[in-house]
Design a protein that fits this description.
This protein has three helices and four strands. It is of the alpha+beta class. It has a single domain, classed as Alpha-Beta Plaits (2-Layer Sandwich). The radius of gyration is 14 Å and the shape is globular.
Length: about 100
């Protein structure tokens, strides 16, 4: 079975970039509890203030399905959502080659 990778673009509401970053840091901490979540990282776009990209890698479809189901993760995701200007743009993929990641 192939691993699943996801990228998601998140945009902060005007003036909320710092609050969003704080909420995203909390989300990353809570992610440690999820089995099958191998990489969960957020990146700030250097020339687009308030724009962030998430990069995620899961062991399989079951790990993706379980993502965000815990009460702690639901709360953390809710805190992130209140600082977003809209729904994240999410793309689901299958990794085919990588350095630093066993696929």
């Amino acid at each position: 079975m192939s691993k699943i990778s996801v990228i998601a673009k998140l945009t902060a509401t005007d003036g909320a970039a710092a609050d969003l970053e704080s909420a995203l840091a909390s989300l990353i901490e809570v992610a440690d509890e999820e089995t099958g979540l191998e990489i969960y990282s957020v990146h700030r776009v250097n020339d687009e203030p308030g724009t962030y990209w998430f990069f995620e890698v899961y062991t399989d479809d079951d790990a993706v399905a379980a993502h965000g189901k815990s009460d702690a993760m639901k709360a953390a995701m809710g805190a992130v959502a209140q600082h977003l200007s809209g729904r994240p743009e999410v793309t689901r993929m299958t990794p085919v080659a990588a350095k630093g990641l066993a696929i």
